[in-house]
Known about the structure:
mainly alpha; about 70% helix; disordered N terminus; 2 domains; 2 strands
Amino acid sequence: MKKSAMPQELRMNMRGKSKIVGGGILASNPVFRLVLGMCPTLAISTSAFNGLGMGIAATVVLVCSNALVSLLRKVIPDKVRIPAYVLIIATFVTLVEMLLRKFVPALYDALGIYLPLIVVNCIILARAEAFASTNKVGDSVLDGLGMGLGFTLALLLLGVIREFLGSGTFFVGSFGEAEFGVTLGNLPDYAMSVFVMPAGGFLTLGLVMAAINAISDKTAAKRDAKHAEEGKVIDEMVREHVEAELASAGADAPSADAVRVGDGKEEEK
């Protein structure tokens, strides 16, 4: 029994873990679904490289802070839990800031004030309060990873669109002394600079969110229609089964005439 039960338990456990990670990427994406962290999202997503850098920095802070908050969840008093969370997050943000300043100064300069502002990013504080403070370390790390990946992918998508339309380039940046990126022919001459401005950020975010909501609604409608069709098939199968059972019960029961004949014989006796 134990040998046959273990694989099933393992599959259920893995399914639960993947659901935690996938929720932050798709169903509960912090940018497109929960609409959190709008300040760095609109300010940093002017290029794909900046968006990727901010996303990775936030992911590292999310994973590390969630892990430490979960470890200390039974030690931190309720009255000071928010200041304690801020202190933990600020520690990891400082470490990330020092690493970027040392090894990726161009990205550090591009992120500017929004890098230290990760300390009060509502995504990180919300996950520490809502998830890490009440769950195990492993699940908290997976939750931070999922939310961080969702945030990173959102920033990267917005950055690619805004950089392409606003600058006519793709993934231009530098890592140490290495510079990379692609200039798309004469496209910079026809680029619409409004897309790298705040107004372009709001416009791009609104259009992307509208597209994602439309796709989600269409997918949900197809899923509901499929479930409704499956429900009709099941109802029909149940109805046929009930009718067959009733017919079988009726065939096995004595008829009304036979009952009357039997009753008459008993009266004669």
